[in-house]
Design a protein that fits this description.
With 194 residues, the chain is an alpha/beta fold. Helices cover 29% and strands 21% of the residues. An 8-stranded parallel β-barrel has the order 1-2-3-4-5-6-7-8.
């Protein structure tokens, strides 16, 4: 892998995670916009968080929120929308780039949809066990979703055929008090050497 992998950290709920990730060179920050999710970030909180961060592009994680391009653009102004493959049929083409999460065992079922869409920037494949081939993904770059305690090397990413990884932020124990162990080792291994 000639260039470093893309790193996407989602479930960002606090300024500590957002600033830490930006400082470490993370490429994408994800914020959940589903009010029924425990990691929900309101438009007001989102604006406060991203106002203190520069560098990473912003992703809104749709959860069970139905398509509403205007609301997403006006309230959140992200560069990407992250949704599950099951939602793909209900999302018309949009000006926002999509990040679509599909389990590895279901990729073949989505192949025609993936090939027909031009707005999908990345696929997220959680708990990836086997290498991914471009034939399975229609040539769309894949990000491997990692468990919070997982470690991965550049060689493992290259062998898996993925463009990067997805990690998760965590809640603060109290404002400004945060443990970064779940992120720091992977970020230092993959980004720190650049």
């Amino acid at each position: 892998m000639e260039q470093r992998p893309l790193v996407y950290v989602n479930h960002i709920t606090n300024l500590s995670d957002a600033r830490y990730c930006a400082g470490m060179g993370v490429d994408l920050l994800g914020f959940n916009i589903d009010p029924s999710d425990p990691d929900y970030v309101s438009p007001e909180t989102y604006q406060q968080l991203v106002g203190w961060v520069s560098g990473p592009e912003r992703v809104v994680v749709a959860g069970s929120v139905p398509f509403n391009d205007k609301r997403m653009v006006e309230d959140y102004a992200p560069q990407y929308v992250h949704l599950h493959g099951a939602q793909l049929n209900n999302w018309p083409a949009t000006s926002l780039k999509l990040i679509v999460e599909i389990p590895a065992e279901s990729l073949a079922d989505f192949r025609q949809q993936l090939e027909a869409r031009t707005d999908i920037a990345f696929l997220v494949v959680p708990n990836l066990k086997e290498p991914i081939t471009p034939a399975l993904t229609g040539g769309i770059p894949v990000l491997a979703g990692l468990e919070p305690s997982a470690r991965i090397s550049l060689a493992q990413l290259e062998k898996a055929g993925v463009a990067g990884i997805v990690l998760q932020g965590t809640k603060e124990s109290s404002p400004g008090l945060k443990d970064y162990d779940h992120l720091s080792q992977v970020l230092e291994d993959l980004i720190g050497s650049r």
